[in-house]
Amino acid sequence: LWSASKSFTSLAIGFARQDGLLDVDDKVLSFFPDEAPENPSEYLQQMTVKDLLMMASGFSKDYINGIHSKSVKEGVKAILASPVVYQPGSKFKYNSSYTYLLSAIITKLTGKTAEDYLEEKLFKPLKIRKHIWEKSEEGLSCGGWGLFLQTESLAKTGLFMLQEGRWNGRQLLDPEWIREASSYKIVNYDKSSLDQEGKSNKTNDDWKQGYA
Asked: What pTM was estimated for this model as a whole?
């Protein structure tokens, strides 16, 4: 599914929030006391779960290639040690490392991979029986990529989201999370492309839809 995997990681965060395990305003470093750099920057200290979800954490490097090839042995530590060049929440930059950190947070909170957590919360209730999620060298579901599903299973998940977290008469996930996760949060194109009225001049460009 490549980056459609990110939507499943977002759902996992939604379930964890519903279970009272986290809040989107929680600081990212609070989950990683052992992996954090010795002297974290001010921006890194400010970074929240919401910033990761919005692709607005401010990191300059994406470790997807290293984690995918398993040449990066300690992905979480490597990501947290990389420079944070923008204030978190201020600038969109598509970066699969952010979603990898979200997957790592799920594992920190539940002791399960994101795949195993979703097996309990989503896959089993929707009778999605066949799924594989690529794991990193440190044993985490890659989060931002690497999930394999059958076409029908992806369609079921789309229907689950269209029904705002409801399936076969059961409300599995808070509908407010689905609404939040699918609503405009941050402009996701270069603001230099805006016209004088602050609108995108990229007509028919899917990237002008904003990111959540």
From this structure: 0.94
